[in-house]
Amino acid sequence: MIQALRGMKDILSPDNERFEFIIETASRIAKRYGYQYIETPLLEETALFKRSVGESSDIVGKEMYQFIDKGGHDVCLRPEGTAGVVRAFIQNKLDKKGGINRFFYYGPMFRYERPQKGRLREFHQFGCESFGETSVYEDFTIILMIKDIFDALGIGYRIKINSLGCPECMPGYRKNLIKHLQDIQDGLCEDCQRRIETNPIRVLDCKVEACQNLLKESPVIVENLCEECDSDFNKLIEMLKSHNLPFELDSKLVRGLDYYTRTAFEFVSDEIGAQSAIAGGGRYNRLVEFLDGKPTPAVGFALGIERIIELVKMPEAKRDGLYLGIMEPEAINTILELAHIQRQNQKVYTEYNKKSLKAHLKAADRLGVKKCAIIGEDELKAGEIWVKDLETKEEKRIAINQFN
């Protein structure tokens, strides 16, 4: 028997209902914030992610589904959503037009990593990207949007924030950090030792306990910010406080992608174990430029659907829709005509086979419909249909041409 590949998973009931609810809820809220839907390909040039995510990142170095296609092109399945949206933004010359552009997206991403609960090789994200707005108020507004999404889904959270500085203040901090890392280099894991030269900021994100202990005394980014970055970060803190959002400063929060600058944030949950991040993002003012576009400020986020699917508080299920069935084969054409008409306004289930009334009612109840309508021998002769409201238990026979 052929089975799904390791780290890949079918989405069936009851997860499919939660999955749809998450997408519908997040999309509705994103539209209220002025975001429009964008769809990008699952397959992109590998160079896109090497230049954006960063060749020193684990995603590019270890986790991408990368291959040479039949045309000899180096391609990969997208490991994250932002780079593809930025590529589309540049390719469609939106960077040249200027103004504010805000997009939301959802869909599958792929990373070849060790599967674990809430973290698969094919996983799904919902994300938003905002282009053209320099103000830190946009960073705050995105955080506020995520809050609204999680509140609507009934998910508890805490917010971690940090600032990664800018090209003006980062070089001095990077120099201090490298010096500190070289002093403790012998005690760091192999990956961290390699990153000291390639991307020292990423060392702060290491999850190895021995490294975390050694990094407790490492220089703190927010104590090395330039005046503008410091001012923006303090404004963000003030706004989070004024809106009573639960947050904490995390000097080790650098995110796993190389393109972030200034604001970085994560929403975390205490209900899903050690890997507690359920959403994250930040500002990436130089990524459009890195990918050959016109310099454009940008900020965005993504949330992992599999990460939160078990945390979602679903609304109370209500009976919905109509079940149509027959007790006489001659009534099938009438039922099919009625089903087509009723589907203009509601969900309709049709049973083509002759069954007893008890069997029809049992099937209708299992499907959770509001009404069950049946044509039997007597109804067929009289040009009527028997209808039962499964909520009120009311039963009646009405003329077929009056059925609605």
From TrEMBL:
> Where are the annotated coiled coils located?
none
One GO cellular component this record assigns the protein to is: cytoplasm
User: Domain named Aminoacyl-transfer RNA synthetases class-II family profile: which ranges?
Assistant: 22-329
Oligomeric and partner information: Homodimer.
Q: What is this protein called?
A: Histidine--tRNA ligase
Which NCBIfam families does the entry mention?
Answer: hisS
What Enzyme Commission number(s) apply to this enzyme?
6.1.1.21
Q: What SUPFAM superfamilies does the annotation carry? A: Class II aaRS ABD-related (SSF52954), Class II aaRS and biotin synthetases (SSF55681)
User: What does it catalyze?
Assistant: tRNA(His) + L-histidine + ATP = L-histidyl-tRNA(His) + AMP + diphosphate + H(+)
Alphabetized Pfam families for the sequence: HGTP_anticodon, tRNA-synt_His
Broad enzyme group: ligase
Residue positions annotated to bind L-histidine are E80, G81, T82, R111, Q125, E129, R255, Y259, Y260
Q: Which gene encodes it?
A: hisS
